[in-house]
Amino acid sequence: MTGLPALFLDRDGVINVEKRYVHRIEDFEFLPGIFALCTAAQGLGHALVVVTNQAGIARGLYGEDDFRRLTVWMLERFLERDIRISRVYHCPHHPTAGLDAYRHDCFDRKPNPGMLLRARDELGLDLAASSFVGDKDSDMQAGAAAGVGLLLKLQGGPADAEPGAPVARAIEVASLEQASVLFQRHVAARG
């Protein structure tokens, strides 16, 4: 398929410091290197797409409106740096915990590839030419299942609440700066 390449980003642990169910602006802290990574990707013609599990909604810790408010604020911070996030996808569900309306195994919830496949269809993306930066095995599993070309797993994040098998082709990186270097090399090698 020909289409636009994308850089997929998990939110908690990649865009912002993982602090467990972040839903308030005052608790949101951007991870060092995220703006430089996004600027580089945008400059190379990649769409920027956020794909995030938000089980705190299912657990009743915060609501959809809280998530939307924080997302608008986050997107404004990116725009202040001339970075345009094409789309933010979130899954508010959890397969076993939380409120009845949100308790089910959703195809969008990573490690399932639903959010990435929707982004492909809605934005006309070429997943094989795309990259994904996440901090959990479930991020890498979703990327692999969707056929994303480059999978970069940021080290140092919390263990998966629902650990799965590591994805063999995922490359572990120590920082977003290292992720940016590998991403740019990957794009250059693809020509």
Automatic annotation (TrEMBL):
Organism the protein comes from: Rubrivivax gelatinosus S1
Residues that hold Mg(2+) according to the record: D10, D12, D135, K136
Family: Belongs to the gmhB family.
GO biological process: carbohydrate metabolic process
Annotated keywords: Carbohydrate metabolism, Cytoplasm, Hydrolase, Magnesium, Metal-binding, Zinc
E.C. numbers: 3.1.3.-
Annotated GO CC locations: cytoplasm
Gene3D superfamilies attached to this UniProt entry: HAD superfamily/HAD-like
Residues annotated for substrate binding in this entry: D10, R11, D12, E18, K19, R20, Y21, T52, N53, Q54, A55, R109, K110, K136
Compartment(s) where it occurs, according to its Swiss-Prot or TrEMBL record: Cytoplasm
Entry superkingdom: Bacteria
CDD domains for the chain: HAD_HisB-N
Residues making up the signal peptide according to the UniProt record: none
Protein name: D,D-heptose 1,7-bisphosphate phosphatase
UniProt xrefs under Pfam families: Hydrolase_like
Binding site for Zn(2+): C91, H93, C106
Keyword Cytoplasm carried by entry: yes
Annotated positions for site Contributes to substrate recognition: R109, K110
Annotated NCBIfam families: GmhB_yaeD, HAD-SF-IIIA, Histidinol-ppas
Site (Stabilizes the phosphoryl group): T52
An MF annotation (GO) of this entry: phosphatase activity
SUPFAM superfamilies associated with the record: HAD-like
InterPro entries: HAD-like_sf (IPR036412), HAD-SF_hydro_IIIA (IPR006549), HAD_sf (IPR023214), Heptose_bisP_phosphatase (IPR004446), Histidinol-phos (IPR006543)
Cofactor: Zn(2+); Mg(2+)
